[in-house]
Amino acid sequence: MAKILTDEEMGQIIYDATRDNSGIVDCADAYEYFLEDLGNLICNHFGGDRGSVGKPGFDLGWTVSFNVNENVPADGGVFKDYDQGITWKDGEETQE
User: Looking at the domain assignment, is residue 85 inside a domain?
Assistant: First the structure.
């Protein structure tokens, strides 16, 4: 029989998987692929183009780069509150 998960339970799995000490994803290569898939999911639903996955360094931890595209809302959409040094407005990227 299938298990049925709520939207909040699925969100909790993602949250738990992205915690350093969770142990859900057991190696760096698997985690890199997980982040690629997660980045693609974000882009598929909120616009943008997923770039590369960055391994931990410079106190940032794991990162995923995103580039603006025509599917990102004019105000920057879900990306607007992150990486405040880069602004996406009306499909254009500016660096502050």
Answer: yes
